Amino acid sequence: MEALFFWLFAGVAVGASVLVVGQRNPMYSVLLLIVSFAALTGLYVLLNAPFIAVVQIIIYAGAIMVLFLFVVMLLNVSKEDATADGQRPLRIGPGPRRFGAVLAVVLAVELIWALRQIASAPFVSPGGEGVQTSVKAIGLVLFRDYAFAFEATSVLILVAMVGAVILARKDPHAKDQ
Amino acid sequence: MNWNDFSAVVPVLMVTLAACTTMIAEAFRKQRDVAAGRWFGVYGIIGLVGAIAASLSQWNQSLVGFGVISVDNFSVFFNITLCAIGILTIILSVGNADRDHLPLGEYYTLMLFSIVGMMLMASTTDLLIIFIALEIMSLGVYVMTALKRSSAEGAEGAFKYFVLGAFSSAFFLYGIALAYAVTGTTRLDEIGLRVASSALDPGILTILAMVLLLVGFAFKVGAVPFHMWTPDAYQGAPTLVTGFMSTGVKVAAMAAFLRVFLSTFEPLRVDWLPIITVMAALTMILGTVVGVAQTNVKRMLAYSSIAHAGYLLIGLAAGGAAGKAAILFYLVAYSVTNLGAFGVIAALSTPDRQHDNIGDFAGMWKERPGLSALLTMFLLSLGGFPLTVGFIGKWFIFSAAMQEGMYSLAILGVLTSVVSVFFYLRIVVMMYMSDETAPEQRPAVSPLTVTGLLIALVGVIYLGILPGGLLSIAADSVASIF
Questions:
Q1: pLDDT tens digits for A16-58?
Q2: pLDDT at B149 over 90
Q3: What does the pLDDT read at residue B350?
Q4: CB contacts < 8 Å between A and B, how many?
Q5: Is residue A67 part of a domain?
Q6: Is A1 among the domain residues?
Q7: Which of A168, B14, B241, B397 is the most exposed place for a label (fewest CB within 10 A)?
């Protein structure tokens, strides 16, 4: 049963990722990336890591993808779409594509190397055996050991919020100068 | 969690409370009610004075709060310095901020939150908190740089500062991650133990972690080759914000820099000493040489602050009790002088002109003899003239370097100081010996601004003549942790 789900999620994740690269319309790419992230979430659940699964949905599929969508929309998709008559999008020249290919190869080599390392020496987490991955255990660590960091982060977010509001607001003095 | 945890963070909490009060008061202020806006400065000063009082009561007590905040004399020294920088900035701001049409509530709120980040950065013993504090401080300062919305230079400076700052944060974070990967902890003392036990053969990952952390700190301190953001951000920001960030950010970053490199990574001194030495030399040379070529006074002071970062790095390279105390003294000396200098420039600017071109100072002594004299004193102190605090600060730094046998760094420091006097004196010559007069009218200066400038002047002269008290306090502060 677990194997069945694994192959299902893995297939969806790989398939969606391949499709992300193949789209002409960047909007479809972004939406397919969400599918890929959702499939990864399933894999995390199978790995007994429910917290990471939820975080994956909230942060990656939620917040970060919304940001991506905004950027894509701000960059004006319609023009990109108009050139989709069999040609490649104008914006990606051969230089960036080669650069991307090199990065992909480097990443692949790095992954293969890392996986071989893990295969030869099984990973031991610093916490030893019974490492808890449940939401409850993580919550306890977060609010007991890292309580101060948590509170400091809330100040950080407050500052970011005030900053974003003041920079995005209309300048009340713009007119009377 | 008990009472001790909270009593350790009382100073930080007070400033946080003042920041929140200002933020909420701004929400209820009517838009054109400038008088209410002036009160924000008062809230800030109340919070900061309270924080100084609370910090003073923590002197010679060693408390630990929440396992990550260490109240030792070192952090008390920095907390008081940072709060004093805040108070002086607010005093200088009250007359200027509403004249320049800055959004008052956000100006004070962000400044106070930045000070919270700075104080946390100076007093924490955990890399994780250093990072969060660094971000609190930086976000506040990024936004303050862009606070004058009608200024294109401000937007440019803030954008460069933000993008490069985010880049350096990534380096810093990567350094923390590697340190965690090697040692399994983010606590400085435990990392220090692990580093000490393998100091002879530290391994590539430890060195990499150290270098990445060094990049993060060097960026915030403004050391070459991570100084590129400095001139644009300093020129574009509202002048008092420039004064605040050139002092506060440097002081806080230097505090964390010292704590991490002189205690945690001290066993690896042979590995980082060459890097810091080269960095110090390059920083002094570039700051001075490029500074000479500037015609914009704020840009010139930006390069001067780069050069000052180089002198601070000499102290770091020298290490030793004398070097560490000299850095603390130098930071105070630099802060009081620099705030004064930027305060004078801010007092002369109008909403549409920053009064920061060197030609703007032509013949200033005829119209404004008092301000000219003040600016002259601050510039002489930055250049390191005797009887000013700048001279004493440099004297301590260079003599600490001589004690450790770093003659070439000390000589280079003296040489660059001499060259830097040239560009400070250019402004003085412009003010006193130019026959021309700047065409623009110079605005009236509020008595509060004058008070702030006089406080800075008293600091410059008092510490320049009687530096012993502050130096022994600085020595006590470093003795508590290193």
A1: 999 988 887 888 888 899 999 999 999 998 888 888 899 899 9
A2: no
A3: 81
A4: 75
A5: yes
A6: yes
A7: A168
Domain end, chosen from A14, A48, A78, is at: A78
Q: Is A148 among the domain residues?
A: yes
Interface test with B, best of A153, A154, A162 (most B CBs within 10 A): A162
Cβ neighbour number for residue B60 with a 10 Å cutoff: 10
What is the distance between the alpha carbons of residues A118 and A107, in angstroms, rounded to a whole number?
A: 16
Q: What is the mean pLDDT of chain B?
A: 91
Contact B389, B460 (CB under 8 A): yes
d(CA A173, CA A158) in angstroms, rounded, equals 25
Domain range enclosing A17: 1-78
- Asked if residue A176 has pLDDT above 90, the reply is no
Query: Domain check: are A137 and A74 in the same one?
Result: no
Higher pLDDT, B180 or B482: B180
End-of-domain residue from the set A78, A111, A144: A78
| pLDDT given at position A123 | 52
Residue A128 sits at the chain B interface (C-beta within 8 Å): no
The maximal CA–CA distance of chain B, rounded, in angstroms, is 67
> A141 and A69: one domain?
no
Residue A83 has pLDDT above 60, yes or no: no
Instruction: Look at residue A143 and tell me if it is in a domain.
Output: yes
Q: Which of A:137-166 have CB within 8 Å of B?
A: 145-149, 152-153, 155-156, 158-160, 162-163, 166
Residue B77, exposed/middle/buried by CB under 10 A (0-12, 13-18, 19+)?
A: buried
Rounded Cα distance between B382 and B365, Å, is 20
Q: What's the pLDDT at B162? A: 94
Q: Which residue numbers of B have CB closer than 8 Å to A's CBs?
A: 1, 16, 23, 31, 65-69, 101, 103, 106, 109-110, 113-114, 116-117, 120, 126, 128-129, 132-133, 135-136, 139-140, 142-143, 146-147, 149-150, 184, 351-352
Contact B23, B107 (CB under 8 A): no
User: Token pair for residue B201?
Assistant: 């053969």
- pLDDT band at residue A177 under the 50/70/90 scheme: very low
B95/B146: higher pLDDT: B146
Domains held by chain A: number: 2
pLDDT band per the 50, 70, 90 thresholds, residue B61: confident
Residue written as tokens 């920088």?
B85
Structure tokens, B236 = 């574009």
